[in-house]
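hey so i finaly got around to running the thing on Transcriptional regulator, ArsR family from Collimonas fungivorans. pasting the sequence first so u can double check i didnt mess up the copy paste, my clipboard has been acting weird all day
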Amino acid sequence: MRAWQLSQQLCQLFALVGMMSLRRLRYLSDQDSILGQSQPLVMQQQYGYHQTMNDEPDLSRLARTIGDPTRIQMLALLMEGRALTAKELAYGTDIKPATATAHLRQLVDDKLLDMTSQGRHKYFRLASPEVARLIESLMVFAPKRQRTGPANNNDAICTARFCYDHLAGKLGTRLTEVLLERGLLQTDDGTFLLSEQGETWFEDFGIDTRQLQKSRRQFAYPCLDWSERRDHLAGALGATLAKRMVELGWLTRSKHSRVVGITPEGRSALAEQFGIALHHE
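ok and heres what it spat out for the 3d tokens, dont ask me to read them lol
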């Protein structure tokens, strides 16, 4: 998926939101006319004292920020959960470092990125898992591009990749399906709940779920996968499960890609313990 396609889709999405809001306001205005009321279209009391509609979240600013092709590329590069320097992001987006700095400042100002300093270097990462969830969700709406070159890279990222810090692609969705089928996880109003059997299983797997549930981060929830169009496991539990599989030597991180490598040991373990067979390195 190209950056310009994603930015175009985002702009279309925000335009749709704006049209829906405008239609709602026009409807209210028409109702007032029919009833012979002369009250203002949106009263101050609806938004609190000294508040107006301008105090609502500024969706147009967010659309402008993410809709820029360079900035959406930067966000995509950071989707694997690692922190990168301005120089690395400039190289990855094929722009000059000075230009990259201006784009990064905008992303930090709009709370999409966090910046930390170490010595002479400044490192940038996604501000939260929610930002990654936003980008992944937009990828679901973005049109698929036609292949013009080797299919290997595209197949690899669709088979197994990191979505911020949890597993996505065929591997992520299949794992989630197995956890649900075995009753280790249960769905509940847009989130995942851990069963007693699941708590025991994750503990045996080396994951302290009770400690995870005490963290400020949302414990477990479904994240719609852009390539599979099905849910994969996100949240603190999804991130820790991915980390544990890396620690066990089942999976490996790519240095400059979101693609997840699956080791021979990992292939055997995934097949034996989860009944999952994947066919790429």
